[in-house]
Write a structure and sequence with these properties.
Elements: E1 21-33, E2 38-59, E3 66-88, E4 93-111, E5 120-121, E6 133-145, E7 148-159
Length: 162
């Protein structure tokens, strides 16, 4: 929901800010194959955001002279595809992989980002925490030892700038 900055130290930073809204659609597949030795999950999705809330710095009455407040920044559209697979290669060896593509962009981002009092069009900026590509892979192996099992795990992750 929307709200007010109750910890603001000057009146103009109190607010209000609008509620953040999103409409999302997703379609996907979840399948267990090869006698349940291979699990495949796939999804495509799209989300339309209105009034994304974010923190910005504004002049304030505290000792630092600025304060972080929440405000409605703008609107964005996010589309993507994700594929995930888990394979039981042997009784003791499990392989996991994930690949995701994300197309995220501001459709409207009008805000004063420089603290100058001038609102500018910032919709050319990247949407924060939205990497275009990300991938993950893991290998798990269980080794029998006297009295139980020892598990070995190795993984790697890749993520574009975000």
């Amino acid at each position: 929901g929307g709200g007010y900055n109750s910890r603001a130290t000057v009146a103009q930073n109190i607010g209000p800010y609008d509620p953040e809204e999103v409409i999302s659609y997703e379609a996907g597949l979840k399948a267990d194959l090869l006698s349940q030795r291979l699990r495949v999950n796939a999804a495509v999705f799209t989300s339309d955001y209105e009034d994304i809330q974010g923190a910005v710095r504004r002049p304030g009455g505290n000792p630092t002279g600025t304060e972080s407040i929440t405000q409605s920044l703008g609107d964005a559209e996010v589309k993507g595809v994700e594929l995930e697979m888990t394979a039981l290669a042997t009784e003791r060896l499990t392989l996991t992989a994930n690949l995701a593509f994300l197309d995220a962009e501001w459709t409207s981002f009008l805000a004063d980002l420089t603290n100058s009092g001038v609102i500018t069009d910032n919709s050319f900026l990247d949407l924060a925490n939205a990497p275009r590509w990300s991938a993950y892979g893991a290998i798990d192996y269980e080794q029998p030892v006297p009295g139980g099992l020892v598990g070995w795990h190795l993984d790697a992750r890749y993520m574009d700038k975000h």
